[in-house]
Design goal:
208 residues, alpha+beta, Helix Hairpins, 3 domains, four-stranded mixed β-sheet, 4 strands, 10% strand, elongated
Length: 208
């Protein structure tokens, strides 16, 4: 994104600062030998999205893809495929219309083709569209399963200890009510996290 912005800025500045902008433009990543900023196309204004709903759909998709990338430790610069699953073509239309923007901000190429079988990451957007990211060849599946398994094991031990404490009448009877309530809330939070980790391990072909 920074390279793109700098590239466009140099094109705009070139008429005022021809020599400096030409020298800087040639140092940008992706520069093609023999090309000149003086002959580069003039920047055009980005097309605005039609309506708040379309904007929200694109924002939610970008956020979901970024979250899945973080969850599975996918390198920020690595391009991935993101398959859209929906029974309504009108629902995915705003995303397909802005696939270039999504590709630039989330490093993901959108597709409406069925996702390949195997290890996939899933996310469901508020609009009901399901995002499927194939993980085979993108992450080290065995290493990721081992990492998630270690995290799940540690969380399970903590959860068992917490549940044991909450099942102890001496603790629940003598501890302040607000402390007991906080511990019960923590139990629910940890249980949800444990279920999520187990689901991720199964999605990667492991057992949990």
């Amino acid at each position: 994104m920074l390279v793109h912005v700098f590239d466009q800025a140099l094109r705009l500045l070139h008429p005022l600062m021809p020599f400096i902008t030409e020298a800087l433009w040639r140092r940008l990543p992706g520069y093609v030998a023999g090309t000149f900023v003086a002959r580069a196309s003039w920047p055009t204004g980005a097309r605005t999205l039609d309506g708040a709903e379309a904007f929200d759909a694109v924002r939610e998709a970008i956020g979901a893809i970024r979250q899945l990338r973080a969850d599975y430790a996918i390198p920020p610069g690595q391009k991935i495929a993101a398959h859209l699953v929906s029974s309504q073509a009108s629902a995915v239309a705003p995303l397909l219309a802005e696939r270039a923007l999504i590709a630039r901000l989330a490093r993901a190429e959108l597709s409406t083709e069925p996702a390949p079988s195997g290890a996939n990451a899933h996310a469901v957007l508020p609009s009901g569209i399901e995002l499927v990211l194939p993980l085979a060849g993108v992450v080290d599946l065995e290493k990721e399963v081992a990492r998630l398994g270690t995290e799940l094991g540690g969380l399970t031990k903590q959860l068992d200890a917490l549940r044991g404490r909450l099942s102890n009448e001496k603790f629940t009877g003598k501890a302040p009510p607000e402390l007991v309530a906080a511990e019960r809330a923590k139990e629910q939070e940890w249980a949800v996290r444990a279920a999520q980790l187990a689901a991720k391990i199964r999605a990667l072909g492991g057992t949990a």
